[in-house]
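Issue: ligand-bound run for magnesium ion - logging full I/O for the record.

Environment: standard queue, default settings, no custom constraints.

Inputs:
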Amino acid sequence: MAKKTIEDVNVAGKTVLMRVDFNVPLDDQQQITDDRRIRMALPSIESVLKRGGKLILMSHLGRPEGTGFEEAYSLKPVAKRLGELLGQDVTIASDVVGDDAKSKAQTLNDGQVLVLENLRFYKGEKKGDAEFAKQLAEMADIYCNDAFGTCHRTDASMVAVPEAMNGKPKVVGFLVDKEIQYLSDTIANPERPFVAILGGAKVSDKISVIENLLGICDKVLIGGAMAYTFAMAKGGQIGKSLVEKDKIDLATQLMQKGGEKLVLPVDTHCADDFSPNANKQVVAAGQIPDGFEGLDIGPKTAEMYAQILKDAKTVVWNGPMGVFEMPPFDEGTKAVAQAIADSDATSIIGGGDSAAAIEQLGFADRVTHVSTGGGASLAMLEGQKFAAVELLDEK
Ligand code: 3PG
Ligand code: MG
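Outputs:
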């Protein structure tokens, strides 16, 4: 059930309303610290502009109050960066459905681009308000969703706006198309062995992903702090490691369901304090001394995981193996990233921390796909269907 893409519609002389996810990280000087989400939307943006379409871009940024303009959440730095990347002027409206946006939208010429201010300056966005959606829908002839990072949301710009554009073309952009191809289609029909490697702090965040992937993968490797909840469920000693005591039963059930498919660490790199100067030691999994906490998988686990990844034909990775930002507890994550980069497998990296790790290590070009979605990529790995995508036109 492939969706029509922006390439399938004639945009010349038409106005395209494109929902993008320009929710990029900013420092306290309002400087963009990672512009990947902007760069990844360029193919769709350029496709419209080159073919003589008029382009209106809409996005949220952060979580403002919803009571009007807030400088800290303005899309101005994003519009500026987009202009640099495109090498052309990018106009920004000071509102979304106000007079400035409406007049700027009406005077757009073919091949020009307008960025609306942050959608979440209006309560109607999060509420999915029909009146707010109608005003946006009236601005354009074509709707395009290229906001993969937001596809798990049902905000107005994702659902109510395309619904209000009845009879007009509603398509996906190239980024959403590609994300679905890897995070859904490839996974549904993987070349085997298919290995998933999951890290991060909490079992509770990853339960549905683990459950879904246990049903389709050949191996699911576990790292990160959630390994300590599993270790505790097995009756191990976990010292003062981060655990979710209320998830012990669940961890036990997942181990029963997974059997040999679910692979847990065999050793742990731990420390007596959450600091680079702490006393550190490597111990067998489930033998963390009192006063110590696990901060990374140990070297034996890293070696074992690297071996399993080496033989895989499809790999999905979501979540770091340890405290990646505090060396030496980045070693497990580095070893796993290296093994994935070295393998010939189709490799799919979930968004958020694992995407950041792959980028920082300079391996982004050596994996098949790095997702721009955090929550959205997890939801897709859980096997969820997205309303914001379902309602778009079929090929
Ligand atoms: C994200 O970064 O997770 C997306 O942009 C969605 O943002 P949200 O979690 O605030 O809805
Ligand atoms: Mg989020």
